[in-house]
Amino acid sequence: MSKAVNVLISDPTLRDGNHAVSHQLTREQIATYCRAADKAGIPIVEVGHGNGLGASSLQVGLARTDDETALRTARENLPNSKLGIHVIPGFATIERDLKRAMDYGVDVVRVASHCTEADLTERHIRFCRANGKTVFGVLMMSHMIGKDMLAEEARKMENYGAEAVVIMDSAGNYLPSDVKERIDHLLETLSIPVGFHAHNNLGMAVANSITAVEAGATILDGSARGFGAGAGNTQLEVLVAVLHRMGFETGIDLYRMLDAADLAEGELLKEHPRISSISVVSGLAGVFSGFSKHVQRLAQEFDLDPRDIFFELGRRRIVAGQEDLIIEVSSELAAQKKAGL
Amino acid sequence: MKNYRVAILGSGNIGTDLLVKALRSESLACVAFVGRSYTSPGMAKARALGVTCSDRSIAYIEEHAQEIDLVFDATSAKDHAVHAPILKALGLRVIDLTPAKIGSICIPAVNQDSSLGSDNLNMVTCGGQASIPVAYAIGKTHSEIDYLEVVSSIASKSAGPATRINLDEYIDTTEKGIQAFSGAKHTKAILILNPAVPCIDMQTTIFAAVRNPDLDALKSVLDPIVAKIRSYVPGYRVIVGPILENGRIVVMVRVRGRGDYLPEYAGNLDIINCAAIAMAEEFAKEGRA
Amino acid sequence: MRQAVQLLQEDCARVAEHDAGGLDALRDSHLLVTGGSGFMAGWIAEMVCHLNEHRRMQIRLSLLARNRTQFQDRLPHIASKPYVTFLQGDVRDIVDLPKDVNFVLHAAGSPDNRNHTTNPIGTMITIADGTRALIQAAERAANLRMILNVSSGNIYGRQPSSLERIPENYAGAPACGGVESAYAEAKRYAETLMTAARSQSRLPVQTVRPFAFLGAYQPLDAPWAINTFLNDALQKRPIRVMGDGQTVRSLLYGADMALWVLTILARGRTGHAYNLGSNQGISLESLARKVSSHLQPSPEVILNAALSRNVPTSILVPDTQAAERDFGLRVLTDLDTAIQRTLKWHQC
Lengths: 341, 289, 348
Fold this sequence. Notes:
heterotrimer; A: TIM Barrel; Helicase, Ruva Protein, domain 3; 2 domains; 14 helices; 13% strand; B: Dihydrodipicolinate Reductase, domain 2; 7-stranded parallel sheet; 5-stranded mixed sheet
């Protein structure tokens, strides 16, 4: 008789990881990793473009594998695990994207917005509930506001019908005390479970995730080998090992989890996620991790120091989805440089 | 001469900003500002400006149709569906600022002349008014557009509850609009709300994936179109491009509003109102001719 | 008159010394105060004068009020300042804020409980409609950085005797339907409306909940014990305390209040609420004796214990730890100084 799961793991390797390879994951890679994840008993496997459903675009990057193929492939290879998707209103519409995703067999819909814009999620959350799907609310870039406003936005999602709220440290900016303060307050304010999604820009992803769980969060996101945007996510196999050592139960078979991580390293990763110098800058500047590839490309094209671009993006308080502004900022910085400023 | 008689139906933010613009116009005479309640702030503003007000909505228009040449409908898509046949029966021209998609699509910088033949003009969306002229210029200069995309960022504060709840309709209407004017095989619209303080100006980026990009040709078509837009939206300007970046044509425009009734950063609301006023002024010219 | 002005400027200077740069965010800004002829507006105007004339802050101050005469009578030296604009009007009718407004202090609404008792309907409608109109105008103010909504300490309802001081998160409420609840209930509504505007329209909004004050610009016939005491003392007659004198209140001096309000406006983060008042409770008997001690000869203090009933002692004292923690705000003018300065101002 297995112990009751008390920390629910959601694995965005095949979603957030897509940021790290400019959304080029193939159908075969999706199939291979899904099989391994399913064997390991990972409860929720998230699949799709880095910015989720309907986000394949010139703005963020065109996906090599379209939503339908990715989701159908995942579904076929996940006999036990639940299939999750990330949905940002403004990118994905109900008619064009969400209805079809349900036909492809999605189980868990994670409806996300920038941390201050929860009221954009009302219709999408309502639609999922009306169709009997499990739906979580997700607040991205949550470091940009304090605990009170974060809780207020989370509360909106609860009122719309979200069954849990996950806060994302999309920039990898948090220290453990930031996480604790926010999770504590969310748990005081909400009556639904709370989750946490980390990025590793400042090397805090596992520590922050553990802090969240100790504060009472019951959903954690982690990717195999940390495969994700910027410096990567919480390294899932490490997180699972630590949680088990602490006495938490995830329902995941550690050996098979390690196998899945080894497989991911061989099959999915172009390069091992690492905290590069510019990831540190990005984390400090509080800039969306998914911008990393774009910044590096544009820094080369415009002959700029990527660190200057990151700090300027941070200063302008640009949010996820505003990749076009990286072009504007780069062209402006280049013009200034040319003018000798 | 202010002798072309317009009425504004809808006393919300859009209607009230239109009122300020109509009063400034040299050819338009605003003969009525019509809503449903005298207590709305728009009504208070209109009264302060000395404009005839009514709280009787479409009934007022029906009773005073003889005194009106054109109606701006700034209510909602659902209400416009009710108003459109009534206004048609009354023989009144309509400029529709709701996303009802009943009239013919109008972007003054692109199809002003052909729009003059329609009695119901639909002003698409704010993103559409900003991006369609660019999309049109790309379509004019490139025979095969595989894909065209517009991404708009607006200040969170400029998006009220109606905008938020109708996000999907905004996306759908904008996608159809850019497709119709560019001939692109596939189109996509994305909307981002940014809560930064101070508020950001509306900004729209147009990306295109085309077979043989010709930036010089594009620029030669785009420049006069932008000049035309600036004649009715002074705060419209191209801030980046056209450039070729990472295999895509990129053009970025920014729209700063005039700050009439709505704040300057709400360029998204200003552009659609400016376009509507520009068309009404064209009708006024025609009426005189 | 000149003496009175000088006295208030000295108070502002003494108190503003304690500002560690928190007010710098107000530099070159435009501040609009609704309720522009009231006690709070008067002191804010005094403090702005000090900051402009001694710290070159270049704050533009607009005061909105219904009654120009009252404003000019009470604040003639303020009315003549080049950086002060008087806007005549009712906040309920406001359509547009001045375009360049950065900060708004929403202090409209009389706290006089005698008016509330006689005209509860007018009280409630004025507060509700004034707040609504302000929000709708503020939604379109492009340069707005913060609105500070002046609520009331009365929104907590009765302070339980078990609680020495009321903290901001105390979940009490006024009795529903009581005669004295009209004002408190309307203020609660206004607070919630402001919060809704923050949530729905992304307005930057904070709240202060004022308790009792002391100082210039409070008329001697104002309905609070301290004014009665001052009035009795200045009229050189015995100070009469209602009941047994065991009621506990606290008083914050006007200059301190102005510093607190401007600091919270300048530095506070949207969504927060702070008690505004002194955390040092004092019984009315002790207060009356303090007032008496500042005059020569000292007037007699008469308690009216015979008429008092055996009811629990009423306490109303705010917990102000939040303002101290977030901004280092504390009482800077002790009660004796405050009483002395107030008496002197009335004698000018």
